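I have been asked to look over a protein record a colleague put together. Alongside the sequence sits a line of tokens, each denoting a local backbone shape. Please read both lines and tell me whether the tokens look consistent with the sequence. I do not need a full report, just your reasoning and any doubts. I have pasted the whole thing underneath without changing anything.
>
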Amino acid sequence: MRTEALVFAGTACFFLAVDVLYAVWSREPAGTAALTIAFLMASLISFFFARTHRSIGLRPEDRPDGEVQERAGRLAPFSPGSGWPVLTALGAMILALGLVFGLWLALIGLGVFASGVGGLVFQYATEGDQH
């Protein structure tokens, strides 16, 4: 994940340079804020990839001598019978409709979306690593 971290670090540096130039020359706060947020988001993704690289080390696809069969096998548990993705999608839909029709509907959608994401995250928390 070192390569991905470097790509997003480069993207963050680009957004920072453009942000500084834009802030100095335009003196327009909305564009400056948008570029600052883009810089922060790219920096966050770069930090995540760098931290993940430090914790798991080189993956087979990161090494020049990596073989395809090194990556074979189960990568992560997948539950085809889970209802949490459907609940998450429903919550996202209600949240998007709430942004159009009113705050009350957006709050309901946010609650449904949060419960779906929480269910996805903690789906296997109590079952151990059986799957």
